[in-house]
Every structure is written in C-alpha cells, then in structure tokens.
Amino acid sequence: MSETIGQEGWVYVIVSEKDGEGTYLGLFDEEQEIDFIPAFTSREAAQDSFLNLPREPGKKYEIQAIHIEELTTDARQSGFKVSLIDSDGKVVDP
To answer: What does the radius of gyration of the chain's CA atoms come to, in whole angstroms?
Structure first.
C-alpha cells in the first residue's frame, strides 16, 4: 500500500461530533507550521493513532472513510491541508 496521498481513492479520517454537528478533526503542527486534517491509509492506522491525538472533552469521535477528492476540497475551503499520518500520530506527508 502506498504511503502517500494521491488524488484518487479513499482515506480514513477522524470526525468529531458535538451538538449534532460533524466536523473533521483538525490539528496544527508547530514544527511545520500548518493547519491540517490527519488522514490515514487504513482504519487500523487511524485507530492506532487516535489515542495519541489531542481531543476536546465532550466531543464524540469516530473514524470514517472518505474519498480523497472530497476531503481535499473540504479542507481547502476551511484553510487546512490534508496530511498523511502514521499510526504514532506523526506527519509523514504534509
């Protein structure tokens, strides 16, 4: 499996929900100074990384598959990049 994000196919993201409104989990990487939405090549990588990622108390989170084109469009509209994350929560493809 490729460890880079292409423009075709599916990735897994963490979606948060509070008060019935769903949003992608967005983070800020201080080293690279980017706002990003973490994306994963597999559900297992997302599950492994989930516990290491910062989360807001009171929000419900779940892992969902999404088409990469839809995710990059949504991210761009909100001022975010999509970054591939490894199972340790480290950015591997900004």
So the answer is: 12
Instruction: Kindly tell me the burial class for residue 40, based on how many C-beta atoms sit within 10 Å of its own C-beta (0-12, 13-18, 19 or more).
Output: buried
Q: Please tell me the distance from the alpha carbon of residue 56 to that of residue 26, in angstroms, as a whole number.
A: 11
What are the tokens at 2? 């490729």
Verdict on whether the full-model pTM lies above 0.70: yes
Q: Strand pairing of 10-18 and 60-67?
A: antiparallel
What is the β-pairing status of strands 34-40 and 81-85? parallel
Please give the span between the terminal C-alpha atoms of the chain, in angstroms, as a whole number.
Answer: 18
**What pLDDT band is residue 4 in, cutting at 50, 70 and 90?**
low
Dist CA 76 CA 48 (whole Å): 26
Angstrom distance (rounded) from CA 58 to CA 56: 6
